[in-house]
Amino acid sequence: MSNNYSIETKCIQSGWQPQNGEPRVLPIYQSTTYKYETSDEMGKLFDLEKEGYFYTRLQNPTNDMVAAKICELEGGVAAMLTSSGQAANYYAVFNICEVGDHVVLSSTVYGGTFNLLTVTMKKMGIECTIVDPDADEETINKAFQENTKCVVAESIANPALVVLDFEKFVKVAHAHGVPLIVDNTFATPINCRPFEYGVDIVTHSTTKYMDGHAMSVGGAIVDSGNFDWARYGSKFHGLTTPDESYHGVTYTEKFGNKAYITKATVQLMRDLGSIPSPMNSFLLNIGLETLHLRVPRHCENALKVAEWLENNDKVAWVNYPGLKSNKYYERAKKYMPNGTCGVISFGLKGGRDVSVAFMDNLKLAAIVTHVADARTCVLHPASHTHRQMNDEQLIEAGVQPDLIRFSVGIENADDIIADIEQALTHI
């Protein structure tokens, strides 16, 4: 696929490139195994001497074609799909971290990611230091240790909607010789291109805008190919020294700028197995084909809803980076000039109980454990996605106890506003 094509064309055309007489639509390779004529041919696959497929837990043609599309949309060199966004974030970090290592984490990341890194991975011997994404460089610098291996943040925090200062975080991470990993789920490559600002690795919960229709759970990891792992020698020894669990291969020597994704595939996916089903990847690909059409509509509707909420007497506060009154408005314009996302957070006068009562009276907007759907949906993070956190942790994560996460869909904006208005009459 030509890199000269626009991102809109890549949404449609990237990935599956049918040859003469082949299906025009991406086929679903619903098979666990692949046949070869000789033992030697399959042996070369296991030795990484030849490209091909032998077991779907490692690679599958349908999955790989969709990964290739996402890779092109982000402008990376290699990508892989996972069974969920959580798996993507786990693999992205665990691919370069092990017992005794350390991670610097933005405090406002999604609650599941926060818990993964501060609780679950701590049990694996990986420590984590939390930093405020709005802190100055000097403060963030103090979080680093000799054993720090990466920095993890989100382009737009879920649900705090903090817009990351990419240049600041890239500068700090690279000054300490570690990669910056950014979850770009909310912005999508339509609105934000992290690699263009120096980010090294991007992750996605493809379950959200990329799928767009609440059909399939999935994740993706994309490598920019720009971080020089070999420069730091044994610091990233999993990539730069022989892997005795895979024929003694040294990934950086054999695979160059595709070393990171190759290791994640042949080592982590081999051992942990968080592979998406080919059917889910097929559904994801359908969603990707309209991503460039849906994201602008989400943003357009969200801005209308946010402006209406900002002028309503029953609303205590509104947080949406697209509002001129928002503290991240100028930063969003810098990094995401075409818009941010379709998610708004707001609170109602009267606090947490009033917010819950409001949600219970919505008719068009559905209370679901989801976000970034074509359909408008709503959630109370303190009661749902972040309920494992106490009030102090909620505030640290940028989640006020009364916060309503409102994911604006692509319906008519006036109908969405009318639904909010009628629900407010009940409180």
Please give a structural write-up.
- The chain contains 17 helices and 12 strands.
- The chain is globular and about 70 Å long.
- The model has no long low-confidence stretch (mean pLDDT 95).
- Helix 5 (111-120) links the parallel strand 2 and strand 3 (127-131).
- Strands 1-7-6-5-4-2-3 form a 7-stranded mixed β-sheet, with helices on both faces. Strands 8-9-12-11-10 form a 5-stranded mixed β-sheet, with helices on one face.
- The chain starts with 6 loop residues before the first helix and ends with a helix.
- It has helices at residues 7-13, 39-46, 61-74, 85-94, 111-120, 137-141, 166-175, 188-191, 237-240, 251-255, 259-272, 278-288, 291-310, 329-335, 352-360, 391-396, 413-424; strands at residues 78-82, 102-106, 127-131, 148-154, 180-183, 201-205, 219-223, 315-319, 343-348, 366-367, 377-379, 404-407.
- It has 427 residues and is an alpha/beta fold.
Please describe the topology of this protein.
Blueprint: H1 7-13, H2 39-46, H3 61-74, E1 78-82, H4 85-94, E2 102-106, H5 111-120, E3 127-131, H6 137-141, E4 148-154, H7 166-175, E5 180-183, H8 188-191, E6 201-205, E7 219-223, H9 237-240, H10 251-255, H11 259-272, H12 278-288, H13 291-310, E8 315-319, H14 329-335, E9 343-348, H15 352-360, E10 366-367, E11 377-379, H16 391-396, E12 404-407, H17 413-424
Parallel strand pairs: 2-3, 2-4, 4-5, 5-6, 10-11
Antiparallel strand pairs: 1-7, 6-7, 8-9, 9-12, 11-12
